[in-house]
Task: inverse folding
């Protein structure tokens, strides 16, 4: 019985250590998700500023405001999970791809997502790891833009889409899809006064540079949403694991109490037997 009690005590200590690791992972995921949410607000403001600048630049060099012709060679940037313990995060994202037509090449971000894509038999033309901290997102966007421009220059693609996850409180992870370019110029705001802005650059060059900055901002936004959603999903998984650990600890503590009571009862019975033997 003493051996059984020692085994239970060792199991309780081991589960408590696992619980400490789970709590640490949950805290790290929460801190990263919070940092990404703060940076998302800044990226939104930055993208809105560029959109307003594009609207002003269009006054100097009006361009067709209708949607561009349907593209036939599309590259799609897919933001999956980088680390484990995020549930079916990558599977949900990859599950949105079969519904997209005209996909010529997949650019995939996320080490875990790469493994999930390989299991599905998907052909991935370019991969990158998601940064461990949200501060590295702009550099990741730079790498994606570089890869996309190389493919545009080679004539292998003529449009770009993004598939990423967005976390919504109360609803969990929702996969979203969006076209990054060609841009729908009708969606950019125009100045209310209609006055043409002053500029030192030719309108064509100005629009080209603003469009590049806008696409970069949209990539940063999609990556930050994916980064935040992955860590929110990990927090949910860790919360579930914490609940299971609490249940297991409660069950083991109950067994521990029973074994201790049986050990005490056995000791009392032994002492009583000894006293009776002495009296006789």
Result:
């Amino acid at each position: 019985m003493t051996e059984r009690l020692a085994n239970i005590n060792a199991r309780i200590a081991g589960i408590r250590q696992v619980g400490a690791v789970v709590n640490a992972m949950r805290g790290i995921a929460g801190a990263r998700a919070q940092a990404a949410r703060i940076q998302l607000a800044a990226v939104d403001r930055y993208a809105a500023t560029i959109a307003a600048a594009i609207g002003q630049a269009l006054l100097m060099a009006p361009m067709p405001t209708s949607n561009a012709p349907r593209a036939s060679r599309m590259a799609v940037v897919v933001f999956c999970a980088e680390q484990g313990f995020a549930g079916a995060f990558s599977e949900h994202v990859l599950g949105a791809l079969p519904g997209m037509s005209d996909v010529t090449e997949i650019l995939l971000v996320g080490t875990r997502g790469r493994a999930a894509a390989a299991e599905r038999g998907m052909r991935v033309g370019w991969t990158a790891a998601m940064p461990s901290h949200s501060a590295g997102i702009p550099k990741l966007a730079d790498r994606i833009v570089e890869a996309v421009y190389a493919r545009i220059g080679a004539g292998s693609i003529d449009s770009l889409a993004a598939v990423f996850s967005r976390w919504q409180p109360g609803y969990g992870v929702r996969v979203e899809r969006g076209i990054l370019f060609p841009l729908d110029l009708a969606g950019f705001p125009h100045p209310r006064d209609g006055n043409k802005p002053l500029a030192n650059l030719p309108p064509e060059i100005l629009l080209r540079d603003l469009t590049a900055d806008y696409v970069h901002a949209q990539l940063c936004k999609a990556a930050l949403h994916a980064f935040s959603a992955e860590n929110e999903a990990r927090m949910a998984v860790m919360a579930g694991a914490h609940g299971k650990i609490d249940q297991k600890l409660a069950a083991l503590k109950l067994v521990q109490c029973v074994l201790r009571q049986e050990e005490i009862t056995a000791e009392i019975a032994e002492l009583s037997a000894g006293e009776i033997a002495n009296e006789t």
Q: What stands out?
A: The chain has one domain: 24-192+201-236. The first strand starts at residue 74 and ends at 79.
